[in-house]
Specification:
This protein has helices at about 5-10, 15-25, 35-45, 65-70, 95-105, 140-150, 165-180, 195-205, 230-245; strands at about 80, 85-90, 120-125, 130-135, 155-160, 185-190, 220, 250, 255-265, 270-275. The protein is an alpha/beta fold and about 290 residues long. The strands form 3 sheets. Strands 3-4-2-5-6-7 form a 6-stranded mixed sheet, with helices on both faces. A two-stranded antiparallel ribbon has the order 1-8. The protein has a two-stranded antiparallel ribbon with strand order 9-10. α6 (about 140-150) packs parallel to α7 (about 165-180).
Length: about 290
């Protein structure tokens, strides 16, 4: 439903809803579509209980895209780009890191490229593509970040070298472990004089995230999003982890997708922006492909 419809249904002022969305990093207007998880979080802040009603035509939708992909004939599968989610504490440079990556390497104007309007970006590195998903930073939007982890192949956990492991860092780690996806730690802000990467690695070890330097299996890369230091090193590590995961999909099967963010062009023409892990779509469908 739209912000306006949600306001009318609950009695919550539209301005209050827009304010809550803005706190979560979502810039919206009264005609913006919001999904159930977001609406439920906002309603809960106003002590309103909600129940999700699934339309009959959506009852057959699968819960786990990975189950669909694993059922494909292995002979029909082809390598596909990894889907990467950037997670971390709100002040640790997650957005700045995405900006640094996009400013130099966004694949613009390519068929099937992910556009920045859905909080997803596709870049090209050494003639290979990587798709990045963005996630809201405010702590009230836990469910939306959890969805990001479930939709991804690899998570890059951003931790500021001058700060440390924070509550949202721990929350992101919990989402990654629950989703069972590989993690890369990006230790950001190493250009600052107060940066202490070793302290960050020690704190991560306390959260049961053991980086390779400490004898664990979690890769870590020291970067500076602001100074654009070692961004290529991070991208190369992502490709290395993707190679180890052996990510594949069938380009000739029916499209499988996960909704990235609900939106609306107009009330009579509502649609969902989706991330597709297979590439061939019905001619009437607009596809934002990750493969």
């Amino acid at each position: 439903m739209t912000v306006r419809e949600f306001s009318e249904a609950t009695g919550i002022g539209a301005s209050e809803i827009l304010k809550a969305l803005l706190k979560g990093g979502v810039i919206a207007n009264i005609n913006q579509q919001i999904d159930y998880e977001t609406a439920a979080l906002i309603a809960a802040d106003f002590s309103i209980e909600t129940t999700e009603l699934v339309p009959e035509q959506l009852a057959g939708i699968v819960d786990n895209i990975k189950d669909v992909l694993s059922a494909e004939n292995s002979g029909d599968l082809r390598p596909r780009p990894p889907v990467v989610t950037i997670m971390g504490h709100v002040d640790h440079g997650k957005t700045k890191l995405l900006d640094s990556i996009r400013s130099a390497r966004v694949a613009e104007g390519e068929a099937g490229g992910i556009t920045q309007h859905i909080g997803a970006y596709q870049i090209e590195v050494s003639q290979r593509k990587i798709t990045f998903l963005d996630t809201p930073g405010h702590e009230a939007f836990t469910a939306m970040r959890a969805r990001g982890a479930q939709a991804t192949d690899i998570v890059v956990l951003v931790v500021a070298a001058d700060d440390g492991v924070m509550p949202q860092t721990l929350e992101a780690i919990a989402h990654v472990k629950a989703a069972g996806v590989p993690m890369i730690v990006a230790i950001n802000k190493i250009d600052l004089p107060t940066a202490n990467p070793d302290r960050i690695k020690q704190q991560l070890a306390g959260a049961d995230v053991i980086v390779e330097d400490y004898g664990g299996n979690v890769p870590s890369v020291e970067v500076s999003a602001r100074a654009k230091l070692n961004i290529d090193g991070l991208l190369e590590m992502i490709l290395l982890v993707a190679d180890l995961e052996d990510l594949k999909a069938n380009p000739d099967t029916r499209a499988s997708a996960r909704s990235s963010r609900p939106s609306s062009i107009r009330a009579a023409d509502r649609w969902r922006r989706c991330l597709f892990k297979t590439v061939r779509c019905d001619p009437k469908t607009t596809c934002l492909s990750a493969a």
